[in-house]
């Protein structure tokens, strides 16, 4: 199973239009693509204008075929009109050889992951993803502890999440670009259930089972924080992002 993230920076005034576009144009096209199991447009709770088009596929080759298709090219061209303008400006020569400045749009960023472990449901994705709350935990793992990390996640983390009220699905995905980068993705019936899980201490309890496999840089950082009794930020910190599903559909 293969998970694809397309990060989009959407102009605030276009958010409702993008939702309508995703419903009317993107979902029907993805439903026709071989191997696409689910598509969702999710919105960040912390970063203004940050959206992700999340798709779930049977195989990587099917997602790659889609990315090379005219369908994907056409959808990308249509979505460009809704993207935010960045703070960067491009300098170029016009046709009459005059210098002109043009603001650059925030181009979509694609990230691809293989699903290494998932909850033990017969279906691969929720029947109705719209309205679900999503927690994405980014992790860096020591290369020599990756197999141990996956084993603990499969045998202890997944069963614990399956018995947690409000948690519908959980996936552990492995980056195809960075060999030691993982995302722990959990789908919740509502934000309240996810917050209850966090407040109960269960997240910290489950994290402690895995912590010894985290990158050495991160472990060093946590020890330093303990010594100085303060916060230190690094490029390999465990990061938690929260999203709400704006619209989506399962094609099972």
Written overview of the protein:
Helix content is 33%, strand content 35%. By secondary structure, the protein is an alpha+beta fold. It has an eight-stranded antiparallel barrel, surrounded by four helices. A two-stranded antiparallel sheet has the order 4-5. Strand 4 and strand 5 (99-105) form a beta hairpin. Residues 86-92 and 101-105 have low confidence and may be disordered.
Give the tally of structural domains: 1
Name the CATH class. Alpha Beta
Strand content: 25-35%
Work out the helicity level: 25-40%
How many individual helices? 7
Please summarize the sheet with the most strands: 8 strands, antiparallel, barrel
Oligomeric state, counting identical vs distinct chains: single chain
Itemize the secondary structure elements and their pairings.
Elements: E1 2-9, H1 15-31, E2 36-44, E3 50-57, H2 60-67, H3 70-79, E4 85-93, E5 99-105, E6 109-118, E7 133-140, H4 146-162, E8 167-175, E9 181-188, H5 191-199, H6 202-210, H7 216-228, E10 239-250
Antiparallel strand pairs: 1-3, 1-6, 2-3, 2-10, 4-5, 6-8, 7-9, 7-10, 8-9
Brief descriptors of the model:
single chain, 252 residues, alpha+beta, Alpha-Beta Plaits, eight-stranded antiparallel beta barrel, two-stranded antiparallel ribbon, 7 helices, 10 strands, 33% helix, globular
Short overview:
With 252 residues, this protein is an alpha+beta fold. The protein has helices at 15-31, 60-67, 70-79, 146-162, 191-199, 202-210, 216-228; strands at 2-9, 36-44, 50-57, 85-93, 99-105, 109-118, 133-140, 167-175, 181-188, 239-250.
């Amino acid at each position: 199973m293969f998970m694809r993230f397309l990060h989009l920076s959407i102009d605030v005034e276009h958010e409702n239009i993008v939702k309508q576009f995703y419903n009317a144009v993107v979902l029907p096209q993805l439903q026709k693509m071989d191997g696409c199991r689910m598509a969702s447009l999710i919105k960040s709770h912390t970063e203004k204008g940050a959206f992700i088009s999340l798709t779930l596929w049977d195989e990587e080759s099917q997602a790659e075929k889609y990315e090379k298709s005219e369908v994907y090219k056409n959808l990308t061209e249509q979505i460009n009109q809704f993207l935010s303008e960045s703070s960067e400006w491009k300098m170029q020569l016009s046709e009459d050889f005059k210098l002109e400045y043009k603001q650059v749009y925030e181009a979509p960023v694609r990230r691809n992951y293989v699903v290494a472990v998932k909850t033990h449901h017969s279906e691969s994705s929720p029947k109705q993803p719209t309205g679900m709350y999503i927690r994405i935990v980014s992790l860096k793992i020591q290369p020599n502890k990756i197999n141990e990390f996956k084993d603990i996640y499969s045998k202890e983390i997944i069963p614990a999440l399956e018995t947690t009220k409000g948690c519908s699905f959980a996936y552990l995905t492995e980056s195809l670009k960075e060999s030691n980068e993982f995302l722990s993705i959990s789908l919740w019936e509502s934000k309240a259930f996810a917050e209850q899980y966090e407040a109960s201490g269960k997240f910290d309890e489950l994290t402690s089972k895995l912590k010894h496999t985290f990158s050495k840089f991160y472990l060093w950082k946590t020890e330093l924080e303990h010594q100085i009794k303060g916060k230190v930020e690094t490029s390999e910190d465990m990061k938690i992002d929260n999203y709400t599903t704006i619209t989506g559909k399962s094609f099972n």
